Amino acid sequence: GEGWSYTIAETPMLIAPDLAAYRIDAEPYYRPVGDEITVFEAAWKHRLPVMLKGPTGCGKTRFVEYMAWRLGRPLITVAAHEDMTAADLAGRFLLTPEGTVWHDGPLTLAVRHGAICYLDEIVEARQDTTVVIHPLTDARRMLPLEKRNELIPAHPDFQLVISYNPGYQSAVKDLKESTKQRFVAIDFDYPAPALEAEIVMREAGTDPALARTLVAIAACSRNLKGQGLDEGASTRMLIHAGRLAAGGVPLEAAVHAGIVLPITDDADVRQALGSAISACF
Ligand code: ADP
Questions:
Q1: Furthest-apart CA pair in the chain: how many Å?
Q2: Taking the CB of the first residue and of the last residue of the chain, which one, N or C, has fewer CB atoms within 10 A?
Q3: What are 91-128's pLDDT values in tens digits?
Q4: What share of the chain is helix, strand, coil (3-state, %, to 5)?
Q5: 257-274: per-residue pLDDT in tens?
Q6: Pocket test for ligand 1, best of 215, 236, 259 (most atoms within 8 A of CB)
Q7: Rounded CA gap, 157 and 5, in Å?
């Protein structure tokens, strides 16, 4: 093995045909960092809604994929964006040559047939989406489809998971207190250096020394947070730089393309980041 334990999906997959496309057949690589698996499993047992908190690119999405596989449930992921409305989640009537037909949105699919629904960066979505989520996240476990005048009781295996980046939130764009309080929260952050190096090695195919260098570079960039940088380099960025370097791009160029350029458009900040990083080589 890889030095950490493998687990076999415990439930035989009883998955509705509508959800066949969402089942996860192969075990996703996920390196546990704390007690997140235990907490998620306990939440799942009671079908409690879960909020994954943490900066972008630190493993939240990979964790949900892993948990869905481990629990033997299909996973429907929705990346929220600022134009996303309740109808994008719930569904809408579509005009077809045969007339108007209702089309279930991703959330409705999950609610009807029993999937884990992962709403990534939910805070980006318009406020009216919370109206849809609220009756699903309390004892009612109902999804109101206003347009169809229908109230769908959630399938026993439905679970709602959202991600939330506390660093990005402003007063105007934040989850309402009444929404936040419906979720069990699990905190995510960049993994400790040795763990993060292990992940970079595995995901980018680098050797151990290169992985450690990239993790040291990340630490430098994370120290610049607040000094022109909203966030330091994420684990995802280290993997990108690592892939470039493992593919033959000289390290400095790989770090420039994988980390420095994407993270900021400001020439001065780039300069500062560049020299901080050079000190890590
Ligand atoms: P987020 O959803 O937090 O924005 P992701 O889950 O997409 O971030 O993580 C970005 C990448 O980092 C993943 O594709 C994966 O390669 C890697 N990664 C981060 N944390 C872990 C971890 N604990 N185990 C395995 N891979 C990880």
A1: 66
A2: N
A3: 999 999 989 999 999 999 999 999 999 999 988 888 88
A4: 45, 15, 40
A5: 999 999 999 999 999 898
A6: 236
A7: 26
Candidates 253, 208, 226, 189; CA nearest to 56 is 189
Reported residue count of the chain is: 281
Distance from Cα 236 to the centre of ligand 1, integer Å: 6
CA–CA separation, 238 and 223 (whole Å): 15
Q: In what order do the strands lie in the sheet with 159-164?
A: 75-79, 116-120, 159-164, 50-53, 184-187
Sign of CA dihedral 140, 141, 144, 149: negative
Q: Which residues pair with 98 in a beta bridge?
A: none
pTM of the complete model? 0.91
Pairing of strands 91-96, 142-145: unpaired
- Listed in sequence order, the residues at least 6 apart from 108 whose beta carbon sits closer than 8 Å to its beta carbon are 89, 90, 91, 143, 145, 152
- Count the alpha carbons within 13 Å of 160 in the hemisphere toward its beta carbon: 27
- How far lies 25's CA from each of 113, 164, 225, in Å? 18, 27, 38
* Residue closest by Cα to atom 26 of ligand 1: 30
Ligand 1 nearest atom to the CA of residue 120, by list position: 2
